[in-house]
What does this fold into?
Amino acid sequence: MKHILVFTLIGITSLVLSCTSSENKTDDQSLPENALSVLDTAHYIQQADSLITITFDTLSKTLKAKMNEGGPVAAVPFCREQAYPLTATYQNEFVFLRRTSLKFRNPGNSPGDDEKAILEDWQKAFDAGNTPGYGFYTDEGRVHVMKPIFLKEMCLACHGTLEKDIKTSTLAVIDSLYSLDKARNYKEGDLRGGWHVTFFVQD
Ligand code: HEC
It folds into this structure.
């Protein structure tokens, strides 16, 4: 059985608060049988969040350095080859980390059904003017946490608009490597996709 929960940032806060304010709470019959406790959920989200922070910091530092050295053209191929090894550095046998998006550049990052459901919920929330928060679901032996990725100014050189942000020379490299690229025409602040951390849980 599979449970999919999507929280807004406010949702998470109130979940954690409601947990601490009701210590004597007995089993909540409304929860599905094998749903994780609120505390477990908060724990996994916290773990995922720190992994994502470390990985993102490393990725963006590396990107910035490459852009400074040789501009976006030099950084594009680097991104392609280094993104996976960099994220893999922080993986161990119990955790797997990846990025995905509804408008992906690398087809290897295209979302699976569960990821897609969460990305679509986020996009709806975002389009309605809300800030989407963490996505959370479980399936057999695994706990999944997703966190939205928003577009920053430094991302525009490779994910922005063709007229304004992406230079012809950069576009040529992107097109040569990613013939099916959808990850362009974003604006600063846009929802770009999400991190997905999978925990392999042992009984
Ligand atoms: C120098 C160009 C460049 C810059 C700058 C850049 N990206 Fe990317 N981005 C890429 C390339 C190339 C890929 C495909 C990587 C791969 O093959 O997995 C990618 C992939 C991604 C993906 C994975 C999903 C997909 O589309 O395949 C996300 C999410 C993403 N970028 C977000 C960002 C964000 C957020 C920033 C700014 C902090 C950023 N990128 C800056 C070039 C860039």
The pocket of heme C is lined by residues 60, 63, 72, 75-76, 79-80, 83, 99, 101, 104-106, 109, 149, 151-152, 154-155, 157-159, 183, 192-193 (CB under 6 Å). The chain has one domain: 3-18+34-200. Residues 3-18+34-200 form one domain.
